From TrEMBL:
Record's keyword annotation contains Signal: yes
Entry-linked InterPro entries: MdtP/NodT-like, OMP_efflux
Keywords: Signal
Region Disordered: start-end pairs: 435-456
UniProt xrefs under Pfam families: OEP
Native source species: Desulfomicrobium macestii
Family (UniProt): Belongs to the outer membrane factor (OMF) (TC 1.B.17) family.
Matching SUPFAM superfamilies: Outer membrane efflux proteins (OEP)
Signal peptide: 1-27
Keyword Signal found: yes
Name of the protein: Outer membrane protein TolC
Source organism superkingdom: Bacteria
Length: 456
């Protein structure tokens, strides 16, 4: 019992470390770090799926003392329907107790099987924890991206409203074509529909996150402020090595293979008989004649018995079954390793490609779009460009800024996927997203476009 208590304490201590691991990985530069970390802690405590996974492990752990236990002693009792007359007296009933002694090592092998099966479920529960953290992180970052998409759409709508009013004024004095007027109206209607759709999409995203946290229905979670910029000092080789060495699905398969090995060893020992040791006594009345030696004494017998393993074919089949099960599990593991390596390669490529795209967008593409907007504004004020040219330049800049945040979100999800594959949280830093080159100036320009003096 003490051993089992210590085992439970060690396992739940490990679970607590896994649940709250990674707190130090957050950087102070990202303001929302405490919000996401709080969500992870809350999900670890309250998510019913994760609790069910650990409950299954607890149930399997309780099989270990059952497997190691001795068979129950057997008590027997019988009454002679007709007393057996003997020299020492009539025998009226018999009673005895017997204990079956399994062949050497059987109990330990059964306990080993139960322990390895529990270890497989523990690995699955830990994998469920990492998967839950991945889902919470992905839902959180998608929710944050929705906020960025809503901000961009609303900002674009304000610009379109201004352009619509401006085109309408110029159309009234024949300075703009009707085609320009209707095109702006179409663009405005499209953006209004997108704003409505994004607003409506907030509820299912909030519900996804709320469900993962195990909170009651009906609550709309606040929208996160931003998607962070993430970085890790682990290179591709170290991440790949962690995946092949510490992946929890592989750990579960290893435990299952070890359980099958123990089952094969146990099946081999079934060829040997189990011993049964017992003690019997017969209740004897006093004899009819006096003076008989040992009169009325109850005879006592020590009994020994063994089972006869006649069905050798069935036992051979059990050995083959356990061997094939172990072989199948190891083949499944080899196939899983190949699949994990391929999946890791795709994710690592995505991380590298995302880093390149972030650098390209922030360092080259967005600044060029800013320059294009400046040039379009100058041309518009000089009467050498249409309002739709200006609108196109503005829309391009907005879309590129939103694309930058989309890549940030995808990058965060890929790193969470790598955590699941590696069986541990890959150390990373979280920092506030740096302002894009020209982003603040472009926003100032958008504000100026909505002012009446901008039309002069």
């Amino acid at each position: 019992m003490m051993r089992m208590s210590l085992t439970r304490l060690a396992v739940w201590g490990l679970a607590a470390v896994l649940v709250f691991a990674g707190k130090a990985a957050f950087a102070d530069e990202w303001p929302e770090q405490s919000v996401l970390h709080g969500y992870l802690e809350e999900g670890a405590r309250a998510n019913p799926g994760l609790q069910a996974a650990f409950a299954r492990f607890e149930a399997a752990l309780d099989k270990v003392p059952q497997a190691r236990a001795w068979p129950d002693p057997r008590l027997s009792f019988g009454v002679f329907t007709v007393p057996v007359e003997t020299r020492t007296g009539p025998q009226r009933m018999r009673f005895g107790v017997a204990q079956m002694l399994p062949w050497f090592g059987k109990r330990d092998l059964k306990a080993t099987m139960a322990e390895r099966e529990a270890a497989a479920l523990l690995a699955q529960a830990q994998s469920a924890k990492l998967t839950l953290f991945r889902e919470i992180g992905a839902a959180y970052f998608e929710y944050a991206y929705l906020g960025k998409a809503l901000d961009s759409a609303r900002e674009e709508l304000e610009i379109l409203k201004y352009f619509e009013a401006l085109v309408e004024t110029r159309y009234a004095v024949s300075s703009a074509s009707y085609a320009d007027f209707t095109r702006v109206q179409v663009e405005r209607a499209k953006v209004e529909e997108r704003v409505a759709s994004l607003n409506d999409y907030r509820f299912p995203l909030s519900e996804r996150l709320r469900t993962l946290l195990g909170r009651p229905a009906g609550e709309i979670l606040p929208m996160p402020g931003s998607v962070p910029l993430m970085d890790t000092n682990w290179d591709d080789g170290r991440i790949t090595s962690a995946i092949t060495e510490h992946n929890l699905a592989l750990a579960a398969l290893d435990a299952k293979a070890e359980a099958a090995d123990a089952a094969a060893d146990l099946a081999r020992r079934e060829f040997f008989p189990d011993l049964t040791v017992g003690l019997e006594s017969i209740y004897t009345d006093a004899p009819r004649m006096a003076g008989v030696v040992n009169e009325g004494k109850d005879p006592v017998a020590i009994t020994f018995g063994i089972n006869l393993p006649f069905d050798q074919e069935a036992r051979e089949a059990a050995v083959r079954q356990a061997k094939n099960s172990a072989r199948a599990t190891r083949l499944e593991r080899a196939d899983k390793v190949a699949g994990l390596e391929a999946q890791a390669s795709r994710l690592l490529f995505g991380v590298r490609d995302g880093s390149r795209r972030l650098e390209l967008l922030s360092g080259t593409i967005v600044p060029k779009a800013r320059q294009n907007l400046d040039a379009s504004m100058d041309a518009y004020q000089a009467g050498k460009a249409s309002m739709l040219d200006l609108l196109t330049a503005e829309k391009t800049l907005i879309e590129l800024e939103l694309q930058y945040h989309r890549v940030l979100t995808d990058q965060a999800v890929r790193l969470a996927d790598l955590d699941v594959l590696a069986g541990e949280e890959i150390p990373r830093t979280f920092s506030r997203t740096p302002a894009l080159a020209g982003e603040e100036q472009a926003r100032d320009l958008r504000v100026s476009l909505t002012k009446p003096e901008a039309s002069k």
